[in-house]
Structure formats: structure tokens, C-alpha cells
Specification:
Rossmann fold; Thioesterase; AB_hydrolase_fold; TEII; alpha/beta; Surfactin synthase thioesterase subunit; seven-stranded mixed beta sheet
Length: 256
């Protein structure tokens, strides 16, 4: 069923529109995150790529909408909105934390449509087949806030505003629940290359858990390790974006 254009606009944010049929880089936020987190990525890469970010329901201008409760359902809905087709615009996926697992499940659905992504970039997340027993989503509000401060993310700038942060807690809790109750289902490995970005001091991902992404592809695999914790990417953005550009160069669609 076709998705109305107005709904596409709710989901897909294009901060720097560029003409032509370029390879599309779809950016997927972390738990509690929003599309605006990837504004700097769009600014840096939009000259060579069609960079878009996904806005999940339940936050910012979609705050009044019901959150999607599972990663599998969120993946299905985003793929419906993107509507990838065989021979269509090449699509690469870039997700951080929850967004990385979401990207993996989206890639699976896209392969079922014979419209596999050209690349999956997984940042700050253990491989789907490496579960942990976590229950942050069951904590009270103060416990959830403590987790956010420890990770220094989800938007760190908002941590100084009690009103803004508490307003976002329902979406943050929902996303943590989705990530922590996610169950990997056995299936074929992806056919697209996977590049993993990870921090050497990330409490959410060990190097071994990050390296296990290699089992989820039959294509090329690379892992890049940076100094820092869960939000290492804010300090290493230029290096990461250079890697993304280099990895996508061989498959980049011409800007016609």
C-alpha cells in the first residue's frame, strides 16, 4: 500500500536537498534521539550523497504521536515509507545504537524486496546475535535520567533543561524498551557490506560484541575503533564521515 506523501514528510527529513539521483544515506537515531542529531552529517555529506534522517514518532514535532513499540515494527514502517525497489535509487543505512539494530532489520526487509541496501554502517551497538540482559526501561524516571547522564547522550545539551528532558522521557523509555526486548531471529546473512564504528570505552558494547557483526554479512566487513564512550561519534565525526564517503564511492549513483 502506497504511503501518502504527507506521511513521508513526517518520517523523512532532508536538511540539505541536493538535485539529482544520488545514493541515499538514511540516518537512524539512537534511543530517544531525533532526526536533528544527524544535521551535521547532512551538512558534511550532502554534496555527494542524498542524506536523509528518520524522525521516529513520539518526539519533537511528532511528540503527540504514539511511539512504535518494537524494532521489528519500526523497521517495517520505515521501509514502507522509503519504498525501496529493485533497480531504484541506491540506499545505504547508517544507525547509531538502537539505530544500528534498526538498520539491520531494515536491511533484511529490503533484501526480501530484492532491493538490498548498498551498505550498512552500524555505530555504537553490539551485533544483533549478541544479546544482553538489560532492563533500564524498567527504572523509575530518576534511574532513567541517571543512565542518560552516564552515557552523556540523548541530547546531552538537553540535560541542563529539566523540563525538556522530562518531556522526552516517554519516548526515551519506549526506545530503551524496544532495544532491550529485541530478539534476534536466525536467518541468512546480509549480502551488503557492513562497516562498524565503536568506542573503546563504550559500556554498551565490547570490542568482541562489535566484531561479531562480521557474522551478519557475506560481503566485506570493516571495524573502526575510536577513543571514547557510547557517544564517541561526536568527537570523531570527520574521520567517520570520511570513511562513509570512501566506502560509498564505488557504489555512488551519478548525480543526474
Amino acid at each position: 500500500m502506497a504511503v501518502p506523501e504527507i506521511d513521508r514528510g513526517l518520517w523523512i527529513r532532508n536538511f540539505h536537498e541536493t538535485p539529482g539521483r544520488k545514493t541515499r544515506l538514511v540516518c537512524l537515531p539512537h534511543a530517544g534521539g531525533s532526526a536533528s542529531f544527524f544535521f551535521p552529517v547532512s551538512r558534511a555529506l550532502s554534496s555527494g550523497l542524498d542524506v536523509v534522517a528518520i524522525q521516529y514518532p513520539g518526539r519533537q514535532d511528532r511528540r503527540k504521536e504514539k511511539c512504535v513499540e518494537t524494532i521489528h515494527e519500526l523497521a517495517r514502517r520505515i521501509v514502507e515509507v522509503l519504498d525501496p525497489r529493485p533497480g531504484g535509487q541506491p540506499i545505504a543505512l547508517f544507525g547509531h545504537s538502537l539505530g544500528a539494530t534498526l538498520g539491520f532489520e531494515m536491511a533484511r526487509l529490503m533484501e526480501e524486496r530484492d532491493a538490498a541496501p548498498v551498505h550498512l554502517f552500524a555505530s555504537g551497538r553490539r551485533a544483533p546475535s549478541r544479546p544482553r540482559d538489560e532492563s533500564v526501561h524498567k527504572r523509575d524516571d530518576e534511574g532513567l535520567l541517571a543512565e542518560l547522564r552516564e552515557l552523556s547522550g540523548t541530547d546531552a545539551r538537553a540535560l541542563g533543561s529539566e523540563e525538556v528532558l522530562r518531556m522526552a522521557l516517554p519516548a526515551i523509555r519506549n526506545d530503551y524498551r524496544a532495544a532491550e526486548t529485541y530478539v534476534y531471529e536466525e536467518g541468512p546473512a546480509l549480502s551488503c557490506p557492513i562497516t562498524v564504528f565503536t568506542g573503546d570505552n563504550d559500556p554498551k558494547v565490547t570490542l568482541d560484541e562489535a566484531r561479531a557483526w562480521s557474522t551478519h554479512t557475506t560481503a566485506d566487513f570493516q571495524m573502526h575503533t575510536y577513543t571514547g564512550g557510547h557517544f564517541f561519534l561526536t568527537d570523531h565525526q570527520p574521520a567517520m564521515l570520511s570513511t562513509i564517503s570512501d566506502r560509498l564511492a564505488p557504489v555512488a549513483a551519478p548525480a543526474t
